[in-house]
């Protein structure tokens, strides 16, 4: 079986994903979905995304964490550091599934290298002021499947939908 590689992202109505190296919202229900989806798999992230995760929560537990940086001296506890996107596969065991978890620069690399054939996209039903955006995607050849529609509540201030796209 050929293992599919995936990407997971949450974005606002204008593809916004972050500001000041932080997320734009707190949506515990979506965080739960992120955790359930990526648990026991490999997560690949940019150095900035890694640093945006509070120290006590990183590496993301029960997942092999891979960080991409150009800095040859970069150190991170209990994570694998790579300097070339193409080196991801060197660190994947057979049947290990890999999730690209951002940020924007790493999503862009994954799309450019045609690395993923699955995308889990949370579409938050709101617009936000942001400085980081998910890249444009050529939607031809992607099939859309609805996974969840969530109405805002006390703990989750915005409604959102989760869709899976498969190539
Ligand atoms: N909403 C979401 O789902 C979501 C998900 C993830 C992140 N985010 C947000 O996105 C923002 C961070 O995204 P970002 O685009 O600024 O940064 P990023 O993609 O997390 O990291 C960028 C860094 O990755 C390294 N890098 C990039 N291309 C590389 C290459 N070709 N080879 C080696 N290393 C490379 C560089 O590290 P060095 O500078 O160390 O060389 C670069 O500075 C934050 O606001 C975060 O909260 C949102």
TrEMBL record:
GO terms for cellular component: cytosol. Its EC number is 1.5.1.3. Keywords: NADP, One-carbon metabolism, Oxidoreductase. It comes from the Bacteria. Signal peptide: none annotated. SUPFAM superfamilies: Dihydrofolate reductase-like (SSF53597). It catalyses: (6S)-5,6,7,8-tetrahydrofolate + NADP(+) = 7,8-dihydrofolate + NADPH + H(+). It is an enzyme of class 1 (oxidoreductase). Pathway: Cofactor biosynthesis; tetrahydrofolate biosynthesis; 5,6,7,8-tetrahydrofolate from 7,8-dihydrofolate: step 1/1. GO terms for biological process: dihydrofolate metabolic process; folic acid metabolic process; one-carbon metabolic process; tetrahydrofolate biosynthetic process. PROSITE patterns: DHFR_2. Gene3D superfamilies: Dihydrofolate Reductase, subunit A. Residues 4-167 form the DHFR domain. Belongs to the dihydrofolate reductase family. This is Dihydrofolate reductase.
């Amino acid at each position: 079986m050929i293992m599919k590689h995936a990407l997971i992202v949450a974005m606002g109505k204008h593809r916004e994903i972050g500001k000041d190296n932080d997320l734009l919202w707190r949506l515990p229900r979506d965080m739960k979905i992120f955790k359930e989806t990526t648990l026991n798999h490999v997560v690949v992230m940019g150095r900035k995304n890694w640093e945006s995760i509070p120290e006590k929560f990183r590496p993301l537990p029960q997942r092999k964490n891979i960080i991409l940086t150009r800095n040859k001296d970069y150190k991170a506890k209990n994570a694998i550091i790579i300097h070339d996107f193409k080196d991801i596969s060197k660190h994947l065991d057979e049947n290990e599934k890999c999730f690209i978890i951002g940020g924007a620069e790493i999503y862009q690399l994954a799309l450019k290298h045609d690395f993923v054939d699955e995308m889990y996209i949370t579409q938050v039903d709101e617009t936000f002021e942001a400085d980081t955006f998910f890249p444009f995607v050529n939607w031809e050849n992607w099939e859309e499947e609805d996974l969840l529609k969530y109405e805002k509540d006390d703990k989750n201030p915005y409604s959102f939908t989760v869709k899976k796209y498969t190539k």
